[in-house]
Write a structure and sequence with these properties.
Elements (H helix, E strand, L loop, with lengths): L31 E2 L6 E2 L5 E7 L4 H9 L6 E6 H5 L11
Antiparallel strand pairs: 1-2, 3-4
Length: 94
């Protein structure tokens, strides 16, 4: 039992899923930092996005604390960093 949050007794762990494989990143797009390995996601690499929470908006944080729906903030990550799928990854040669 979780003494701090008894309402979570028997709750299942939260499963965070990615939004699927996207890319490869085309020429000319600005590089983004992968939230997993902290390296840049660059041209030719596959990526995905992960939900990271409600962000810093006070209204969204308040809604999240109440258990009400709120807009989700997503951040980019290399597809290989999230799934381990190195089949089309350029990470090993970067």
């Amino acid at each position: 039992m979780n003494e701090n949050r008894p309402e979570f007794e028997g709750a299942q762990p939260l499963r965070i899923t990615c939004t699927g494989k996207m890319g490869p990143v085309p020429e000319g797009f600005a590089a983004a930092e992968c939230i997993v390995c902290l390296r840049l996601i660059t041209t030719g690499q596959y990526f995905t996005t992960l939900p990271v929470g409600c962000g810093d908006n006070p209204e969204n944080r308040s809604r999240a604390r109440m258990g009400a729906p709120f807009p989700i903030v997503f951040r980019a990550a290399h597809f290989a960093c999230v799934t381990g799928d190195e089949s089309e990854s350029m990470l090993s040669i970067v």
